[in-house]
Amino acid sequence: MTTPTISRSARGRAVGEPLETDAPLIYFSSASDNTHRFVTKLPVRSARIPLLTKDDTLHALSPFVLVLPTYGGISGQGAVPRQVIKFLNVEDNRLLLRGVIGAGNTNFGDTYCLAADIVAAKCSVPVLYRFELMGTSEDVDRVTQGLDEFWT
């Protein structure tokens, strides 16, 4: 009798097997990659929530801070990306969430970083910082320092 072959994805995990991470920073970035560009400038281990909703979502194994952009423009409808909702619908992920950092566009006025405010309120965690688009070098410095202080 032969052992069945497990189909593996490009990331080396079995297809259908959940993605797991103990990264202290978890983020979602749309196809524009603005949030991704910001996060990669931070000297912090991070994990990305999958872009495609048909994919398995990420599973957090330890406390983390969530970085997310706001969708919906001026209307604010659909401000929290579907992928983030799917991720936070996993109870263990919600329980390990410790804070939120929002990305947005000041052109959208009152809805600037609205997704961070919504997630923070629903999960009873603080909004730690807000930045525009892909952030500035000052934003990177402030978030780096803020996360160091937050985790100590």
UniProtKB/TrEMBL annotation:
Which InterPro entries does this one have? Flavoprotein-like_sf, RNR_Ib_NrdI_bac, RNR_NrdI
Which Pfam family would be a valid example here? Answer: Flavodoxin_NdrI
Family membership = Belongs to the NrdI family.
Matching entries from PANTHER family are given as: PROTEIN NRDI
Q: What does this protein do?
A: Probably involved in ribonucleotide reductase function.
What is the designated name of this protein?
A: Protein NrdI
Gene name in the database record? nrdI
